[in-house]
Amino acid sequence: MYLNSFEKKIFNFIKTYKIFKKCDKILIAVSGGKDSMTLLNVLYKISKINDYKLGVAHFNHKIRKESEHEEKFVEEYVNKFGLEYHYENFDIIRYSEDSKISIEQAAREKRYEFLFNIQKEFKYDKIATAHHLNDVTETLIYRLLRGTGIYGLSGLMPVNEKLTRPMLTVTLKDVEDYVTINKVEHVVDSSNFSLEYTRNKIRHKIIPEFDGIFDNYENNILTLQKILWEYRNTVEKEFKKRVKYEKNEYIYEIKGDIFDSEILRLIFMKNKNYPPNYEETKKIINMGSKKQRKIYNFLIFKNKRHLHISQLK
Amino acid sequence: MYLNSFEKKIFNFIKTYKIFKKCDKILIAVSGGKDSMTLLNVLYKISKINDYKLGVAHFNHKIRKESEHEEKFVEEYVNKFGLEYHYENFDIIRYSEDSKISIEQAAREKRYEFLFNIQKEFKYDKIATAHHLNDVTETLIYRLLRGTGIYGLSGLMPVNEKLTRPMLTVTLKDVEDYVTINKVEHVVDSSNFSLEYTRNKIRHKIIPEFDGIFDNYENNILTLQKILWEYRNTVEKEFKKRVKYEKNEYIYEIKGDIFDSEILRLIFMKNKNYPPNYEETKKIINMGSKKQRKIYNFLIFKNKRHLHISQLK
């Protein structure tokens, strides 16, 4: 099987970051737009080498009248390839009104819920989405401005449990060239329909200004991102090394380095809570022995150099 | 001595980051523009509390005809306060032509050379420059696009040996308000005269777009910056803990975490060389035992899990 340079880039990225194993059963999220149709085409080729079993999931947001057409397009395309096909219709506008959240948030929530349900029900090893390097840059700038620590800067990961992003190594421009050269069929991308104001401004006003400042800035950002992924792994390792979980209590020793704070924040995140902010974190790390603080329903007690963190019922 | 909230912010920043000690002799770099005249005014007030001895250094680039006027303005102002005054005239345009470097680079190089010469000759404990939070953001974006690791993201530090930046905690807007409210005398800032294309685009095209995306994004960036400063300290600590320097050789053990690469890069930087890039760094870290690589005039040899790094004569 001959792979061109674009496909090879993705192939190598999958290998380096151990995104899939041979013979994995992979569920590809396909809207029908350029990005996801490219992912489908490339993974189909690579599946001939690595014996992946592919399935496609399409989520119809029912937001615009084109939705019907898109659904048909994806289904017919998938049938030609003879892949498993899953779809769901969901009235996002109604749901967002009922639950009083933004359309963007509602769409994301329900789309991922659908993907994970299919993944479990049909025993897929991995879910693959078509995020690319421009999404990495967008997320990086978004988080910088919204506020984040180093851990949060690591943003989109190539693998996050079942969720994978094999295209993080290629730019939107690369995808567009691939679509043109290989005449990849697609519908006009509808994934941007509900882009919130902030994301929209970053994508359409700020990122275009980056072009022409430094050639190839995207690859510089990819390199930083790789380093940030390593940092995240280092934090996870230190967590395992330093933290004991006993009798519903997390216990770890303050060592005076950057991981003191990262571990504290991670304990909150692992329990699906927002971590305390920078100042609060500092206060906890630096409080005296026998002192305690309460954040949400977490009780944090210090004994000499050890923090004891428990969740109140 | 009563300090207003702006002055207090700087006062607390100086205290938290141990920027100056009581009775320090401080050389303030003053162009005569808003930023540096604000720094001069604020440090003058704080000096009454902390017994600093202040001196002012003015560097005349001789680039524009206003330079003469600026020099006079600064000298007269400083005389009113009765502070030590140092200045130098230097023909930057000629120097940049002769040495074939950009005016921007020439100006920076000669300005710092002047500051450090004065600092040594007149035994100043510290040099203070008027960089503020907007400069932090600008540097962060600049480095993101040019390419950097986490260490490099830490950008402008509050203290870097003799060089200090007591105003990193306030924004340009804060400075402008302070100047207006307190009628701080200044000349129209000439420090931008030679701003290179890249910096110019970031300052005037990209950063203004950040306003209105997230309120107070500057403070989010300051928080990230504080975390990055801690990261940098952690790297320096790990360096001291892990690296031995014996018989002109740096020796350290590869431990499989993010500091393996950071330490390698730091060894190059401490010897005033550009560090190897990401791919090269990975190759060195991962090379087999008894293998060696040469980068510039550094010889890197691996023995089991230890790297031995020496500089060839």
UniProtKB/TrEMBL annotation, chains A, B:
Keyword tRNA processing: yes
Catalytic activity entry: cytidine(34) in tRNA(Ile2) + L-lysine + ATP = lysidine(34) in tRNA(Ile2) + AMP + diphosphate + H(+)
Domain tRNA(Ile)-lysidine/2-thiocytidine synthase N-terminal: residue ranges: 25-205
Localization in the cell: Cytoplasm
GO terms, molecular function: ATP binding; tRNA(Ile)-lysidine synthase activity
Domain of life: Bacteria
Location, primary (coarse class): cytoplasm
GO process annotations (BP): tRNA modification
Domain notes: The N-terminal region contains the highly conserved SGGXDS motif, predicted to be a P-loop motif involved in ATP binding.
HAMAP family recorded: tRNA_Ile_lys_synt (MF_01161)
Family the entry assigns: Belongs to the tRNA(Ile)-lysidine synthase family.
Listed name of the protein: tRNA(Ile)-lysidine synthase
Organism listed in the record: Oceanotoga teriensis
Gene: tilS
